[in-house]
Every structure is written in structure tokens, then in C-alpha cells.
């Protein structure tokens, strides 16, 4: 029954043309009932511009470079595709780390975590935060069971450099959120090292409020055959 449902979703996604569909409501997207329920309970009904432009492209499996100003709704633009990818892959607690979301600051990482807990309340994935503050050992005990991990660049790299704990071999999705801010904060080398550590078969979504040469460099390094969506303000 669930297999048929997922096959049906995959067909809908395949036949979905982002250019002609112009979807207004989340309920008209080819996404699972579990995510839809989480969205409607959080009173998210209509897509914002960046969500309308990017979510269908992300659902189709492309790498995405999304640019849109602060407050435009970029968090859901990547969280919905993350949840849907793992759902359609029938991800379980035994499959380990499926998605890695990188955010420049602890505060922003915590905000993403809270939105994820809200809209993911009808899915069975485990989510975790690694933002420092707690010691690495404390985080390590939990990290091996986490399906969706959100963290700051330094802390994520610290975990990747540990011999045990964070196994990225199954990783389906990498999200680089507020990538322009990560670069402004001096995380270029850290991001390069993280990206270099991850399996190349993954899908990557890179979101930013501004465009710059250093962002284009990061996009070239982290994305494959990507689609650009949103507004492209120069930094
Ligand atoms: P950004 O990351 O682009 O700065 P956020 O994802 O933090 O933006 O969203 C900004 C605000 O807009 C948040 O308060 C969020 O709850 C709200 N929001 C996002 N998407 C929607 C939507 N589709 N409908 C209503 N409110 C939304
Ligand atoms: Mg944001």
C-alpha cells in the first residue's frame, strides 16, 4: 500500500512541470500527506515565491542554487524536499544519516530545527542539532541514530573528522543554508572540507540571500549540474 503511494508520488513528480504548474498551495504539490499535515497544522498553506520556484526543482532531484532575500521563506524551501526525499527513499532509523543541513550560527540552526520538528511531526525521522556548547562526546552518543542533522560548519567538520560516530556514506541531501553568511563569517575552508568529505552522489541545495564571486566558487565546488532559482541580487 505504501509502496503504491510512493510510486504514485514519484510519477507525479516526474510529470510535474514547474514552468506550467505555477502551484499556489502546498496541497497541490506532489508531496506526502505526512508533510502536508505538518504544514497545515503549522498554518503554512500558500507557497512563497522562492518556495514556488525551488521546491518542484528540488523534488525532481536537481541540485539547486536558490537566492532570495531574508524573510522570503527559504527554510521550508529546503526542509520540504529533505523530508520528501527521505520519505520516498523509505528511510528508517536504521539507515543512519540521510540529510545534513549546515547553518552559519547556533541561533539559525536552532530555528531550522524548530521548524523541522513542527512540519515533520507526522514523519518518523529523527532530527538532531550539533552546534557546540555541549561536549562532542555527549553529541556522539546520539549522532549515530540521527537521520537529519542540523549544525554549524565548525561543529559538523569536527564530527566528520572523528573516526567514529558520523557516518555520511548513505547521505542523500546536503543543504548549505545562508551560504553567503557562512562565507562572510570565514567558513570557506570549513565548508570546502565538509563538502570534500561527503559522497558525490548526494543532492545539494545551496541557499543564500545574496550573490557574489565567492558564492559562485562555493556553488561550483558543491553543486553538480544545478538549477539557479530566485532573485539574483549582487552582494
Ligand atoms: P529566510 O530563511 O528566507 O530568511 P524563513 O524561512 O526564516 O526566511 O521564513 C521567514 C518567515 O516567513 C518565518 O516566520 C516563516 O514562518 C514564514 N513563512 C515561511 N514560509 C511561509 C509560507 N509559505 N506561508 C506563511 N509564512 C511563511
Ligand atoms: Mg533563513
Architecture in CATH?
A: 3-Layer(aba) Sandwich
Number of β-strand runs? 7
The string of secondary-structure elements, in order, is: HHHHEHEHEHEHEHHEHE
CATH topology: Rossmann fold
- What's the story with the biggest beta sheet? 7 strands, parallel
Number of domains: 1
What is the CATH class name?
Answer: Alpha Beta
Q: Ligands in the structure?
A: adenosine-5'-diphosphate, magnesium ion
Strands of the widest sheet, in order across it, are 3-4-2-5-6-1-7
The CATH superfamily label reads P-loop containing nucleotide triphosphate hydrolases
Mean of residue pLDDT values: 92
Helix content: 40-55%
Q: Which consecutive residue ranges, at least 5 long each, have pLDDT under 50?
A: none
Strand content: 5-15%
Task: Label the structural class.
Answer: alpha/beta
Radius of gyration in whole Å, from Cα? 17 Å
Terminal Cα span: 49 Å
Question: Number of helical runs?
Answer: 11
The coarse silhouette is globular
Describe the SSE topology.
Blueprint: H1 2-15, H2 18-21, H3 33-41, H4 49-59, E1 64-67, H5 74-88, E2 99-102, H6 106-119, E3 127-130, H7 136-143, E4 148-151, H8 153-161, E5 173-176, H9 179-184, H10 188-197, E6 203-208, H11 213-222, E7 227-230
Helix pairs in contact: 4-5, 5-6, 8-10
The structure holds adenosine-5'-diphosphate (ADP) and magnesium ion (MG).
Magnesium ion (MG) binds at residues 74-75, 177-178.
Amino acid at each position: 500500500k505504501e509502496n503504491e503511494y510512493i510510486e504514485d508520488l514519484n510519477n507525479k513528480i516526474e510529470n510535474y512541470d514547474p514552468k506550467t504548474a505555477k502551484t499556489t498551495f502546498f496541497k497541490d504539490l506532489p508531496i506526502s500527506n505526512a508533510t502536508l499535515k505538518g504544514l497545515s497544522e503549522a498554518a503554512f498553506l500558500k507557497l512563497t515565491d522562492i518556495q514556488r520556484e525551488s521546491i518542484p526543482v528540488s523534488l525532481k532531484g536537481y541540485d539547486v542554487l536558490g537566492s532570495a532575500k531574508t524573510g522570503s521563506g527559504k527554510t521550508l524551501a529546503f526542509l520540504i524536499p529533505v523530508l520528501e526525499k527521505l520519505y520516498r527513499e523509505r528511510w528508517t532509523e536504521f539507515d543512519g544519516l540521510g540529510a545534513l543541513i549546515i547553518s552559519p550560527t547556533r541561533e539559525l540552526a536552532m530555528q531550522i530545527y524548530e521548524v523541522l520538528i513542527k512540519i515533520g511531526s507526522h514523519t518518523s525521522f529523527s532530527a538532531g542539532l550539533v552546534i557546540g556548547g555541549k561536549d562532542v562526546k555527549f553529541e556522539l552518543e546520539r549522532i549515530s541514530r540521527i537521520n537529519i542533522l542540523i549544525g554549524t560548519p565548525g561543529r559538523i567538520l569536527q564530527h566528520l573528522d572523528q573516526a567514529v560516530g558520523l557516518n555520511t556514506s548513505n547521505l542523500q541531501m546536503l543543504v548549505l543554508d545562508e551560504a553567503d553568511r557562512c562565507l562572510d563569517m570565514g567558513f570557506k575552508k570549513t565548508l570546502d572540507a565538509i563538502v570534500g568529505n561527503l559522497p558525490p552522489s548526494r543532492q545539494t541545495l545551496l541557499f543564500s540571500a545574496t550573490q557574489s564571486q565567492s558564492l559562485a566558487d562555493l556553488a561550483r565546488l558543491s553543486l553538480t549540474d544545478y538549477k539557479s532559482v530566485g532573485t539574483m541580487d549582487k552582494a
